[in-house]
Structure formats: C-alpha cells, structure tokens
Amino acid sequence: MTGLFITLEGSEGAGKSTNLKYIYDYLVRVGHQVLQTREPGGTPLSESIRELLLSHDYDGMDSDTELLLVFAARAEHLKKVIIPALKAGQTVLCDRFTDATYAYQGAGRGIDEQRIADLETWVQGSLRPDLTVFLDVPVEIGMKRATNRSAPDRFEKEQLSFFDRIRQGYLQQTLKEPDRYRVIDASVDLAAVQVQIKSVLDQLTDNNQH
Ligand code: TMP
C-alpha cells in the first residue's frame, strides 16, 4: 500500500470536527489527494450500523454486541473504502478508528483488550494507521464545551467516569505506541491547538519528501 493512513481521535469536546477540517485543508494544500472518512461509518452499510450504535432505541445494548457492530462497520469500511484508496495512493484521513474501540469498548465498557486485539487482527490484518493525532482535553473542560451541542447520543449521555476511563485509555495507548501517536493539548484555545497540529503535519510532510 502506498497512501498514508492518518486517524484523528479525541475525547468529547476536544474540537475534533474543526481540527479535522484543518488537517484536511493542510494536506490538500501541500498536494495530497485526501479521502476524508469516519468511523463508525464511511459506507452506506457502515453508516446504518453507526445509527444503530448511537440510537437511544438501543439503550442498554450489550457491550459485546456493541464491539461486534463496531468491527462489522469497520470490516465493510476497510474493504470498500479505506484499502482501495490507500492502494490508489490516496491519503486517507479518518475521523476515529480502532484506537476508539480500545478506548470506548475497552477502557470505557471494560471489555478485555485481548478480545479487541483478536478482532483487530481478524478484520485489519497488519494494517494500522501511519499517524494518529489524539486531541487530549481533561474531561471537565471537554464536557463543558460539548454541552452546548444538539441532543446527546447513546455514548454522549454516559457518566463523567466513563469519559474519564476513555481519556485514560487513550493516554495509555499513546505510551505504548509513541511513534504512531501525536498527543495534542486541546485544552488551550483553537489557535494554539492548531499551532501544535501544524507542527506535527510539517514534520510528517517533510519526512515524506525524503
Ligand atoms: P464521533 O463522536 O466521533 O462522531 O463518534 C461517534 C461515537 O462512536 C463516539 O461517541 C465514539 C464511538 N465509537 C466507539 O464507541 N467505538 C469505536 O470504535 C468508534 C470508531 C467510535
């Protein structure tokens, strides 16, 4: 595979949407052909699975069901969209990926990490992102920013403790794979967040020219 696979992760209220656009615009500006997509979602079937996952119709969904739905959506997304784009040399920019599964279903719901790793290997083989940008914000700050939004979905209505476990889960992952992760302090104002992101992207694109 020749294209770059970049993923963006963040806690609630970390400014993921705004910064996704910033990263997309940067990459296009420096000449990448960028395919922007998201998880869960990115294909018609995977978007339908996303609706199931986020809907309050299924409050109390079993955690294993949730995990398997996430990976079902991912299998479809990988085969139909992500892998073909990477093979065609495109840069794939994905809003969340399997790191979110380790954080939400693993740290958040308490599913054993090995189960997630088994599904990861099954569905992805050896495919992993080349770069993962994690927008880190303390839960209290993130939640304050997120409260002004539309009605909370099935995940967003969880307790503070759930989001704290998720943040800690992400931070632990970043320690395990420091080469792949770039942790951005997203508690500061937007301009200061984007200075940090720009520096990560400058490094990435410089590296690619060598
Ligand atoms: P979003 O907030 O980035 O749109 O993502 C939708 C929700 O899906 C978010 O609350 C996190 C959750 N999610 C998981 O629980 N597991 C996953 O593997 C992914 C990709 C997302």
What does this structure look like?
With 210 residues, the protein is α/β, with parallel strands linked by helices. The chain has a single domain (5-209), classed as 3-Layer(aba) Sandwich (Rossmann fold), CATH 3.40.50. The protein contains eight helices and five strands. A five-stranded parallel beta sheet has the order 2-3-1-4-5, sandwiched between helices. It is globular, with a radius of gyration of 16 Å. 35% of the residues are buried. Residues 39-40, 70, 95-96, 100-101, 104-105, 155 line the site of thymidine-5'-phosphate (TMP).
Number of domains: 1
The rounded distance between the terminal residues' Cα atoms is 18 Å
Strand content: 5-15%
How would you spell out the order of helices and strands? EHEHHEHHEHHEH
Question: Which helices and strands, and how do they pair?
Answer:
Layout: E1 5-10, H1 16-29, E2 34-38, H2 44-54, H3 63-87, E3 91-95, H4 98-108, H5 113-124, E4 131-136, H6 139-146, H7 160-176, E5 181-185, H8 190-209
Parallel strand pairs: 1-3, 1-4, 2-3, 4-5
This protein binds thymidine-5'-phosphate.
Task: Name the descriptors.
210 residues; Rossmann fold; binds thymidine-5'-phosphate
Short synopsis of the structure:
Helices cover 56% and strands 13% of the residues. It is α/β, with parallel strands linked by helices. A five-stranded parallel beta sheet has the order 2-3-1-4-5, sandwiched between helices.
